[in-house]
Amino acid sequence: MGAVIVIANTAAVVGFGGVVKATPAFKAAVNVITDIPGSPLIGGALAVAVIAGLTGSSSGG
């Protein structure tokens, strides 16, 4: 029973991330985030953190 709950929770988060990813606001946010000036390593870390926050998970977006 526990495994079914875990699978259902993962599916819900990934599904939510997929819906968020399809919105125009998400695409605009990604464009802004990927143009962060400075070190690509820091910009990449910030971009992943913000996009993961927008989608609700790191695997959903």
Show the helix and strand layout.
Blueprint: H1 2-21, H2 24-33, H3 40-55
Structure description:
This protein is an all-alpha fold. It has one domain. It contains three helices and no strands. It has helices at residues 2-21, 24-33, 40-55. Helix 2 runs antiparallel to helix 3 (40-55). The protein is elongated, with a radius of gyration of 14 Å. The protein starts with a helix and ends in a 6-residue tail after the last helix. The mean pLDDT is 82. The chain crosses the membrane at residues 38-56. Keywords: Membrane, Transmembrane, Transmembrane helix.
Taken as a percent bin, the fraction of beta residues is: under 5%
Structural class call reads mainly alpha
Order of helices and strands: HHH
Count of separate structural domains = 1
Number of H/I helices: 3
CA-CA gap between termini:
27 Å
Overall pLDDT? 82
**Which parts are unreliable, with pLDDT below 50 for 5 consecutive residues or more?**
none
Radius of gyration from the alpha-carbon trace, in angstroms: 14 Å
